[in-house]
Amino acid sequence: MSGVPDHLRRPVRGMRDWLPPQFYALRRMEEVLGAVAESFGYRRVETPVVEHFEVLAKKAGEEVVKEIYYFRDKAGRELGLRFDMTVPVARVLSYNLDLPRPVRWYYFTKVFRYDEPQHGRYREFYQFGVELIGSSSPRADAEVVQVLAASLEAAGASNYLVKINDRRAVDKLLESLGAAQYRDVVYKALDKKLKLPREEVVGIMTEGGLSREVAEKIYDAAGELSLEEAVDVLSKLDPKLGATYGKFVKYLEASVPLEKMRFDMSIVRGLDYYTGIVFEAFVGDYRLAVGGGGRYDDLLGLYSGVPTPALGFAVGVERLMEAVGLQAVEKPLDYYIYIFDDDAYKYAVAVARKLRAGGHSVVIELGEKSLKDAFEYALKIGARHLIIIGRRELEKGVVKIRDLEKREEVERPLSDFLA
Ligand code: HAM
């Protein structure tokens, strides 16, 4: 028997199988992160994996549109797999206009991007995130960053750094340099600042039509600052923006350690729907961003026709798990029951029923193994106890319970389990 070729045994490129230990690790993340969102009053939402392609394509941006899994169904509908949850949430709210605002929702679910798979970059991956819809207050911005920080802390990533920018700051900078018409190419270049050397980033801008002098000025302006320093810089660029930012920093200061926050004008983000503050989160020396988000005040209006300010963030769950080293959670089996002949089966079932009712996991041997093989198998699958019901035990009216960790054996009356 040769079976299918190896590539058919593996998941589709860029996707992964979740065997039980990995899946339980994922579930643990889900519990921990979900509890943080819930504690801030966010409620969980889910939407279909399949979306109208038109909805997805509206404001994804050139780069992300290329990454949408696109297909037609049998009726000819143009569909796509969601590439994030922000867009589906915006769609859901466009026909639920009567929900009391602000709306606080969170999700932990699969999204899809036809990206070039590499380390930390998958085609199917999980995002945990929150969306806060219906407020333009800088307190909302501070709240969302605080939820992000609390999520990272709870996941065991207390060595995080959040890099914050405001797209309006970049726009003002460009205006002041007379380069407003080069916004797109500057965003594209700045987005690469963490990944490429200075020459190449400046090169993207000069190829896009900017003079070398202006391109270098932009590059140098996009360095890291403390949030307090950023308030001064933004106030000089635009007093109103500076004042709003000042409030945001004040609220943030009350809720998170500011030393874990940096202002960085190179954070512009790949998605097109952002309009205000944007941020990305990094953990320890894990190279890729584990999370990102920002304000998208124009997105909901595109679907509902009603302008609605909003912001949120999403964390890449696989990346976060890798950054904190949570890869596998073993789930031990509590009891493995071995019997010697079919007559004892009804006792095995009764014992198992009683133990299961008490919240334990119990497996009954299927009758194909010798005691020795069953014993080895029970050890391999991580069973804590082996219960033996043999002829001698039945005659005595007991079951033998062997603790496989402590290597101790006790006998318990069968009647304990039959009540
Ligand atoms: P995003 O930055 O595109 O933002 O994705 C959020 C996070 O998902 C990233 O920081 C990264 O950790 C993870 N991620 C992205 N692409 C991949 C991939 N190919 N493989 C594995 N992980 C990946 C958003 O999706 C926005 N919807 C966030 C947001 C919510 N903005 C406002 N609200």
UniProtKB/TrEMBL annotation:
Protein name: Histidine--tRNA ligase
Cell location: Cytoplasm
Annotated GO CC locations: cytoplasm
Cited PROSITE patterns: AA_TRNA_LIGASE_II (PS50862)
Record's keyword terms, sorted: Aminoacyl-tRNA synthetase, ATP-binding, Cytoplasm, Ligase, Nucleotide-binding, Protein biosynthesis
GO molecular function: ATP binding; histidine-tRNA ligase activity
Matches recorded under PANTHER family: HISTIDINE--TRNA LIGASE, MITOCHONDRIAL-RELATED, HISTIDYL-TRNA SYNTHETASE
Main location: cytoplasm
Catalytic activity entry: tRNA(His) + L-histidine + ATP = L-histidyl-tRNA(His) + AMP + diphosphate + H(+)
Top-level taxon in the UniProt lineage: Archaea
SUPFAM superfamilies in the record: Class II aaRS ABD-related, Class II aaRS and biotin synthetases
Family: Belongs to the class-II aminoacyl-tRNA synthetase family.
Enzyme class, broadest EC rank: ligase
A GO biological-process term: histidyl-tRNA aminoacylation
Binding locations of L-histidine: D84, M85, T86, R113, Q127, E131, R269, Y273, Y274
Aminoacyl-transfer RNA synthetases class-II family profile domain span: 38-332
Listed NCBIfam families: hisS
EC number: 6.1.1.21
